[in-house]
């Protein structure tokens, strides 16, 4: 197979060199060019026709977001954002992934032994992504309308039945989670999420989703109680998010090393949900590379929980949902835009009471 052709865009010569060096160590990747700003990058795209672009978030003249919007509109291709671990940088990277970037990676910090060690894997995964035009305005929806009214629930009459929703996602997950959470009412069931992201990015993701949509979205903290209308995102880093019954359902952050190459891991979350609440849960697995979450979702289904997998057509990368589907962990396979409604129907107390009466 031909190597993956990559264009590196960053205003720092040092960063261009580090990124290029990390990528050239992989024989399946070819760095076809570099650019210091969007203007020269535009010419390099025309000249080299890359398969993937790595794009700096903050650049003079035209920042990464503005350039990304032009790429998505004029020449859609896989883009990986390269960001500083600062509030502004991570917030912009999250916005970029909602616009259409495939993934993000943090710039190295002082003392990093292997800068950009994860980048070759991300680039090769991105090369297999089918980049589709994004619907205008999806990332700009607000928690309240111009009149100050909350978003209306998708169901005419919704009341949560006490069950918990657990979600696992990876590459493409920021866009998928945005689409899903945008369709939830303010009184949605409690939702726990593992999204594979670097440390610090998950806090920015939670802040942005909380600002845009009706439920209360937070980065999970150890001991935080599980409440209706709240979405808990596992913090990126060395610990896993679990559901624990400790005088009431709570978030529990636990160490133990990567599982399936990830920390936090969707498998760890799903397995804890299966053990803690058994059938009183809904498990959802979304777009992502690899197998993380498949076995845990199967344990949820075996414990009596309902399970949903994102279908291939709507997945940016159909790795995690495929792995779960192939082992029988997925009860229903649905396109992304139907998953939220399906989960609400499954957890609607009024609908359940109607069926029982």
Automatic annotation (TrEMBL):
What is catalysed by this protein? [protein]-L-glutamate 5-O-methyl ester + H2O = L-glutamyl-[protein] + methanol + H(+); L-glutaminyl-[protein] + H2O = L-glutamyl-[protein] + NH4(+)
User: What biological-process GO terms show up in the record?
Assistant: chemotaxis
Is this entry keyworded Hydrolase?
yes
4-aspartylphosphate modification, residue list: 56
InterPro entries reported for this sequence: CheB-like, CheB_C, CheY-like_superfamily, Sig_transdc_resp-reg_Me-estase, Sig_transdc_resp-reg_receiver
EC number(s) recorded for this UniProt protein: 3.1.1.61, 3.5.1.44
Indicate where this protein resides in the cell: Cytoplasm
Location of the Response regulatory domain? 5-122
Q: How is it modified after translation?
A: Phosphorylated by CheA. Phosphorylation of the N-terminal regulatory domain activates the methylesterase activity.
Supply the name of the protein.
Protein-glutamate methylesterase/protein-glutamine glutaminase
Q: Name the species this protein comes from.
A: Hyphomicrobium sulfonivorans
What gene is this protein a product of? cheB
């Amino acid at each position: 197979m031909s190597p993956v052709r990559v264009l590196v865009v960053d205003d720092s010569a040092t960063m261009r060199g580090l990124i290029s060096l990390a990528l050239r160590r992989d024989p399946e990747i070819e760095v076809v060019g570099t650019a210091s700003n969007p203007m020269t990058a535009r010419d390099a795209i025309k000249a080299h026709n890359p398969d993937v672009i790595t794009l700096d978030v903050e650049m003079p003249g035209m920042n990464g977001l503005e350039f990304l919007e032009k790429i998505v509109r004029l020449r859609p291709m896989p883009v990986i954002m390269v960001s500083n671990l600062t509030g502004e940088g991570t917030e912009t990277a999250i916005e970029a992934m909602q616009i259409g970037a495939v993934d993000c990676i943090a710039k190295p910090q002082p003392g990093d032994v292997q800068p950009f060690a994860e980048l070759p894997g991300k680039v090769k995964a991105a090369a297999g992504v089918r980049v589709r035009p994004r619907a205008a305005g999806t990332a700009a929806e607000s928690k309240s309308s111009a009149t100050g009214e909350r978003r209306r629930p998708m169901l005419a009459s919704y009341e949560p039945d006490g069950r918990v929703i657990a979600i696992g996602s990876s590459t493409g997950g920021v866009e998928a989670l945005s689409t899903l959470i945008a369709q939830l009412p303010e009184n949605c069931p409690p939702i726990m999420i593992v999204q594979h992201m670097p440390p610090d990015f998950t806090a920015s993701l939670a802040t942005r989703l909380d600002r845009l949509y009706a439920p209360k979205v937070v980065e999970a903290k150890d001991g935080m109680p599980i409440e209706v209308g709240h979405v808990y995102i596992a913090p990126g880093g060395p610990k896993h998010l679990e559901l624990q019954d400790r005088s009431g359902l709570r978030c529990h952050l636990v160490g133990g090393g990567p599982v399936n190459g990830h920390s936090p891991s969707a498998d760890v979350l799903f397995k804890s949900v299966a053990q803690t609440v058994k059938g009183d849960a809904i498990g959802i697995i979304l777009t992502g590379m690899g197998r993380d979450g498949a076995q845990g979702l199967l344990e949820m289904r075996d414990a009596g929980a309902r399970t949903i997998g994102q279908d291939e057509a709507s997945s940016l990368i159909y790795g995690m949902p495929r792995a779960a589907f192939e082992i029988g962990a997925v009860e229903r396979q649905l396109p992304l835009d139907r998953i939220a409604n399906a989960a609400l129907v499954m957890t609607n107390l009024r609908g359940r009471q109607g069926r029982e009466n």
